[in-house]
């Protein structure tokens, strides 16, 4: 009550929020695994349902609990922006809260970047599958930049041929 501040605390903890990017990257796969094993294994399904019935779970499913970390960083960012709007600019917490928002916004960008990278990797793997899974073109540093229809002009007779290009 003597120093009502949160900006300084969030500023110290915010760098750890970047780890949520890794969680977000693997979220879809984790959700799919839970779904698959719930369908495949009656024992797994029973254990999950049994745990979900416990009071500590608050009547929420495993999937709801798995979604919480994905929503956490955007929620922190939104709350901090609202906090700064309502905080007087001469407040002792203003600079720390502003710095915290900057760090949390960076973590949010990091998470969004991780999501985009995973989506691009999925697209790239689909391209590899379409091309017959040629092992010599599979490289972790490869990136799918663009794909689409193009017209190839023949050098000799300037006729146009349709092609599909992967860049």
TrEMBL record:
**Pfam families reported for this sequence:** RhoGEF
Would you tell me the Gene Ontology cellular component terms? cytoplasm
Q: Which terms in the Gene Ontology molecular function aspect does this entry carry?
A: guanyl-nucleotide exchange factor activity
What biological process terms from GO does the record include? cytoskeleton organization; filopodium assembly
Using the record's annotation, list all stretches that form the DH domain. 1-114
Q: What protein name is recorded for this chain?
A: FGD4 protein
Gene encoding the protein:
Fgd4_1
